[in-house]
Write a structure and sequence with these properties.
The structure holds two protein chains of two kinds. By secondary structure, chain A is of the alpha+beta class. Chain A has helices at residues 20-27, 32-44, 51-62, 69-77, 81-90, 110-113, 117-128, 170-187, and strands at residues 102-107, 141-146, 158-160, 163-165. Chain A has a four-stranded mixed sheet, with helices on one face. Chain B is of the alpha/beta class. Helix content of chain B is 41%, strand content 15%. The chains are: A alpha+beta, B alpha/beta. At the A-B interface, helix 3, helix 5, helix 6 and strand 4 of A face helix 1, strand 8, strand 12, strand 16 and helix 17 of B.
């Protein structure tokens, strides 16, 4: 990854505390969160503005950013835990608790509303038996709102496990959820 | 087997969301069954989004369009002889002759849907890189002058003259300058950035490289929202290939000039589409808006002079350099030069991307292109310019779409998103949604936005109950909008009143007030 030259004081560079020794110790940690955070930090900390890329890397690996990852990231970037916590909680994409096995994001924005998006959102709530930001009792699905997937000419739209689906009717949503649930029973013991 | 027939099937998220991958598999399967060779090219989307997945068969008579194709249609298409361009219920004839496409002026989107987005050969064969090559022979000042002369204004919504922004960065000395592309396209009803990044990523890369040469910046960032995983993947591949082709790096095209860039991924915060908040986010902080001045052009990313432009602004630069400022400037009306990719969305029969010169009317877009409502009911309100744009009633649909004319009716063209609603819409609910959205997405820095939006939701809830102090509540809502308009630090709080007040002024019956009360008291 090429980096620009002459970075003027890029914030987030490791300072006195966040030494390589501390990072290398953390990578050996028995806590998967600490180890993942240390790996991501070791790889990315020298980028200018490294905090968001590190948070993305941890979440991509673990599915969430557990609380014990925060001190390790803060240490690596020479930030306070409060600063890392502040960033982590500012962005809706980052989660501190694991999601269900599948994540259903239903668009709540205007274009989807113009095409029955609210009815679809209600249907999703009913079908899953949980509210937005919630997870079904069996841990299969987490329901999240999303404000625009860029599929506005084909509203209403949802994203299921990162895959976009457009012109979603309650029936179509039901089929998508069934297929995801069947996939679970197919691959899990 | 004879020479393979080329079939184009988009890889754009709009096509994938309608099962394009399953269609691709069905095509491969049927081709094998019929013993014919086909070459499947996964192109960008033509922007005829009601026809996605839109497959095109390359025939001696040109590319023939079939859509929307579902997996179960494929066997029938082969039997009908689509490889020879034969008629079929899903056939629309030559793609280029489809009126929706033929009536457009595709400048920025010239290649989108035509080429393989990741093929550097395709890019060169369709006029790519000519702008960068010309820019490499020019001085920074000449490039800035050319962009200024084109009349290009910021396509993200603010419509600030791009040339002036670039000139400020060029004339501000600094050890390091940056080009930042704002690809945090969070407005509902907008998707032109996404279509472009997925359909022709090289034109954005070329535009950013030209911007780098123009202001003597050597590094760039594309800040893409996390809701666009396909755009992120496409851009990352394209950047790697552009480096390999010598379009980026330490020695661009053997010129000795340097520019490189990378993708940074957002994390679901709408406010990060605001430029100073985006810069904070790139620096690894909470996306909290900065006070201006200083302008980002003087003290932007990491405190350095920074060009921050929207995807479409930067992607329009290559054609301006390649064809000259006058070519671009001659499109449009008044002080709105060039073209804008309008995005038809919501309750329309034919939603899609319409790149056209400024000056056409909303009615032309809604009726001639959009074909009226998808539901078959009368259209009632149209929101132009995203969640912060005004709702326009039918009486305003004949105002020409240009920046100044829209400002004249307290509306904004913005990023060109157009969301149509039929007569089942409750405008008081949409006004409430605007306030609710502002409350959810506020960065919290300034009080009018952070508190005002919450009070706005409460007030609109009271209005909905038609309680004893109904008229006073409406008056209160106006006062609140006035405070937000005048007192907010950025456009989120400052423009949320646009959808709210336009809904109240144009559709007072939905708020339970007579037209006189609704009309602004001053």
């Amino acid at each position: 990854m090429p980096t620009p030259q002459a970075q003027p004081n890029p914030p987030g560079n490791a300072g006195a505390r966040g030494g390589d020794q501390a990072l290398s110790d953390a990578r050996q940690s028995g806590s998967p969160a600490v180890a993942a955070a240390a790996r991501a930090a070791a790889r990315l900390k020298d980028q200018p503005g490294a905090l968001l890329p590190i948070l993305h890397a941890v979440q991509d690996e673990l599915g969430c950013i557990p609380a014990d990852a925060v001190p390790a990231i803060a240490e690596a970037l020479n930030l306070s835990r409060a600063e890392v916590h502040g960033v982590l909680t500012f962005y809706p994409h980052f989660r501190t608790e694991p999601a269900g096995r599948h994540v259903l994001e239903v668009c709540r924005a205007e274009s989807c509303q113009a095409m029955g998006g609210e009815r679809l959102a209600e249907h999703a709530r009913q079908a899953l038996g949980c509210d937005f930001h919630g997870t079904t009792a069996d841990g299969a699905f987490t329901l999240e709102p999303v404000y625009c997937l860029g599929l506005c000419a084909q509203s209403p739209a949802v994203m299921l496990d990162g895959q976009p689906h457009a012109r979603v009717t309650p029936d179509k949503l039901g089929r998508l959820l069934d297929r995801a649930a069947q996939h679970d029973t197919g691959v899990q013991p | 087997m004879s020479a393979p027939v080329t079939i184009y099937l988009p890889r754009d998220a709009a096509a994938l969301a309608m099962d394009a991958d399953a269609v691709a598999q069905a095509i491969e399967r049927e081709a094998q069954r019929h013993g014919v060779a086909v070459q499947l090219v996964r192109n960008g989307s033509r922007g005829l989004l009601w026809l996605e997945p839109l497959a095109e068969v390359a025939t001696p008579a040109g590319r023939i369009a079939y859509g929307p194709v579902q997996p179960e249609d494929v066997a029938g298409l082969f039997e009908a002889g689509w490889l020879q361009g034969a008629p079929h219920a899903l056939c629309h004839g030559p793609t280029e002759d489809i009126p929706y496409l033929k009536r457009q002026q595709r400048l920025t989107f010239a290649r989108v849907g035509i080429t393989d987005p990741l093929s550097t050969d395709d890019y060169l064969a369709h006029g790519g890189l000519q702008g960068l090559q010309r820019a490499l022979a020019m001085t920074p000042q000449q490039i800035v002058d050319e962009v200024a002369a084109s009349g290009l204004r910021g396509r993200g919504g603010a419509a600030f003259p791009t040339g002036i922004k670039w000139k400020t960065v060029l004339t501000t000395p600094a050890p390091q300058k940056y080009i930042v592309c704002n690809a945090d396209e969070g407005d509902s009803g907008t998707y032109s950035d996404r279509l472009l990044m997925e359909g022709d990523p090289y034109v954005l890369i070329e535009g950013m490289a030209i911007a780098g040469l123009a202001v003597e910046a050597t590094y760039g960032y594309i800040y893409v929202r996390s809701e666009y995983p396909h755009a992120i993947a496409t851009l990352n591949q394209a950047i790697a290939q552009a480096r390999g082709a010598g379009w980026l790096g330490d020695d661009i095209q053997g010129s000795g000039r340097r520019f490189d860039l990378e993708v940074r991924v957002g994390a679901g915060a709408y406010i990060c589409g605001e430029e100073t908040s985006l810069l904070e986010s790139l620096e690894g902080k909470r996306g909290v808006v900065r006070a201006k001045p200083p302008l980002p052009a003087i003290a932007g990313l990491f405190g350095q002079p920074t060009v921050i432009n929207n995807v479409i602004s930067l992607a329009s630069v290559p054609i301006i350099l390649a064809r000259g400022a006058a070519y671009y400037r001659d499109y449009g009306v008044g002080r709105s030069h060039g073209t804008l990719p309008f995005q038809l969305a919501g309750n329309l029969k034919r939603g899609g991307l319409v790149e056209a010169a400024f000056g056409l009317t909303l009615r032309e877009l809604l009726v001639d292109f959009g074909g009226g409502s998808a539901s078959g009911r009368p259209l009632r309100a149209v929101q132009v310019g995203g969640p912060l744009g005004a709702y326009l009633p039918e009486s305003q649909w004949d105002v020409p779409l240009d920046y100044e004319a829209y400002a004249g009716i307290s509306a904004m063209v913005g990023h060109g998103g157009i969301v149509a609603f039929d007569d089942t819409v409750d405008m008081a609910r949409m006004a409430r949604y605007a306030m609710e959205f502002c409350a959810v997405e506020s960065c919290g820095k300034c009080t009018p936005c952070r508190i005002g939006a919450v009070r706005g939701v409460e007030t609109l809830d009271k209005i909905a109950t038609r309680g004893p102090q109904h008229e006073q509540q409406v008056h209160l809502l106006r006062d609140l909008c006035d405070t937000m308009l005048g007192g907010s630090l950025c456009a989120l709080g400052g423009m949320t009143p646009y959808p709210v007040l336009s809904a109240l002024n144009h559709f007072p019956e939905d708020f339970g007030v007579a037209a006189q009360t609704a009309a602004h008291p001053t």
